[in-house]
Please model this.
Amino acid sequence: MYPFCEHLVPEDDSQMVVETRIVNDMKSHLTEQEFWQMVEHLHAVGKVKGKCGPDSRRNDLIRVERHYAKR
Model:
């Protein structure tokens, strides 16, 4: 769960976000469909364990537009 800086625009330090390394790795190693299945699974497990509330899903804040594995 190490923090990782992600450039939204290559080489533009004013357009950066922080994400966890594991999310960046998942985007690199999974297809987009596999990535979203993992996100949905983790959210469901979090709800069952009481770690996420029912309104915790904020799709307007999620950006996954690069690094998908090509298969």
Observations:
- The chain has a mean pLDDT of 76.
